[in-house]
Here is the input.
Amino acid sequence: MTHAPNGTCSRAAAPLLVLGLLALSACSTVQQAKLKEDGLACGFLGSVCTKLTPGGKDQASLRYINPTAKWTQYNKIMVAPVSLWGGDITKVSGSDQQMLVDFFHQQLVQELGKKLQVVDKPGPGVLKLDVALSDAEAATPGLRSVSMIIPQAHMISNLKYLATGSFPFVGGAQGGAKLSDAQSGEVLGAWVDRQIGGGNFTTGFQWQWGDAENAITEWSKKMAEKLTAWTSGTATP
Here is the structure.
């Protein structure tokens, strides 16, 4: 940004700032965020946690892919019940925990079922997917609505995002997944990721767990898309 001699922003720079803030206003419903330290990787994923490495663009924050996995031999999948590994530190009530894990399992079965045959028993060509939520954050509905819908407040929200990487009053979720051969138990891949509410206007009137549900839906869709590509041989991990 260029500056006038008195230290204020120049007229040429002002439109660039406005365009940048408008671009943020068109953000997706969720966005990737820095992982919280919560022990999920080793608690849920077990020994494979030592093999996790940072993901790249359009990938989970941490990931592991078994280099010997033969993805094209799989065409079915088992989806285990989703668990919650928040432990004593979670602020999510028992009823909300159950609602979130049930919703997660439902979304996974729904999205994966569009691409692969969902089964309930191990067998040849069957993948097994284990997923856990380790944290969920509720949005603040009233204040979230104001910050997303009212133009002046939304502009301030965009400025906060530029400074901190997060919009105000948003919720989100953090979780992990482990994919294995259903018969042998060999781990084929593992992931840990965190998503928080984005700057999309459409999220302004959602309920307190709307951002967490949007994160869950996004993860489920991406898992289905990636597995379809890998098992069909049209892409590699």
Summary: Strands lie at 30-32, 53-54, 62-65, 76-79, 83-84, 117-118, 126-137, 172-181, 187-197. The helical segments are 13-25, 40-45, 94-113, 141-149, 151-164, 210-232. Confidence is low (pLDDT under 50) at residues 1-26, 139-148, 150-154, 156-160. The chain is about 35% helix and 20% strand.
